[in-house]
Amino acid sequence: MLTPLAPSPLWRPFFFTAAAYNLVIGGAGLATTSAPVNDRIVGLLVACFGIVYALVGRDAARFGPVLRVTANLDNACRVSYISDNVSR
Questions:
Q1: Cα 26–Cα 56–Cα 63 angle in degrees, nearest 5
Q2: Per residue, what are the HEC states of the chain?
Q3: pTM value?
């Protein structure tokens, strides 16, 4: 079994900055009551990515695989959204 490489400490500020940004933007999207439901769902997903980024920033070796799964989920959501809008 391969041993994972130790993550660089330079990534910590990057992930904490990304987490703060996503939590602020996602929270603002959730707090807007006049926004359509689809926009509020996007705000929720963005806020959830912020939580994942904070976890990866805290312990990248442990939560790095979670980031890979969420990146794949993000790509699947984008493809679904684009294909839904193209078919209309």
A1: 120
A2: CCCCCCCCCCHHHHHHHHHHHHHHHHHHHHHCCCCCHHHHHHHHHHHHHHHHHHHHHHCHHHHHHHHHHHHHHHHHHHHHHHHHHHCC
A3: 0.72
Tokens linked to 81: 């959204």
Q: How far apart are CA 40 and CA 69, in angstroms?
A: 22
pLDDT tens for 11-49 read: 889 889 999 999 999 999 888 888 888 888 888 888 988
- What's at 85, amino acid-wise? N
